[in-house]
Amino acid sequence: MAMKIRLSRGGSKKRPFYSIVAADSRMPRDGRFIEKLGTYNPLLPKDSEERVKMDLERVQYWLDQGAQPSDRVSRFLEGAGVLEKKTRNNPNKAKPGKAAQERAAARAEKEAAAAEAANAGDEAAAEETTE
């Protein structure tokens, strides 16, 4: 049986609350699970101790049994010191989106046109003073 340590969503609409559970990977996200290992409340501030609560002994037990943590849960475990930090590389994350790139190009064209106009105005003023 392929085990996962993952989040199971609870809470009402637009008010998420997650349980950290050990579940069979074939079960639905909010479906049957084997054991509840903790909670995650994303609405609380990031520095709050109540934001992520886990029973680290049981989490370690399931990891020893071969359970694979999901990406988000592995982040929680790295923060708690249970897992070593993985190096992540997402070079596209820092790039702006398509619309933002278009706006930046349009802004650069406007600035270039304004700079040319200013230079042309300076040159015309310089010619008038020399004459």
UniProtKB/TrEMBL annotation:
Q: Which GO terms describe its cellular component?
A: cytoplasm; small ribosomal subunit
Where are stretches of biased composition, namely Basic and acidic residues?
A: 100-113
Single GO MF descriptor: structural constituent of ribosome
Output compositional bias ranges, type Low complexity: 114-123
Instruction: Cite a single Pfam family from the UniProt record.
Output: Ribosomal_S16
The entry's keywords: Ribonucleoprotein, Ribosomal protein
Which GO terms of type biological process are on file? translation
Superkingdom: Bacteria
InterPro entries documented for this protein? Ribosomal_bS16, Ribosomal_bS16_dom_sf
* Residue segments, region Disordered: 82-131
Recorded family membership: Belongs to the bacterial ribosomal protein bS16 family.
HAMAP family listed in its UniProt record: Ribosomal_bS16
Q: What is this protein called?
A: Small ribosomal subunit protein bS16
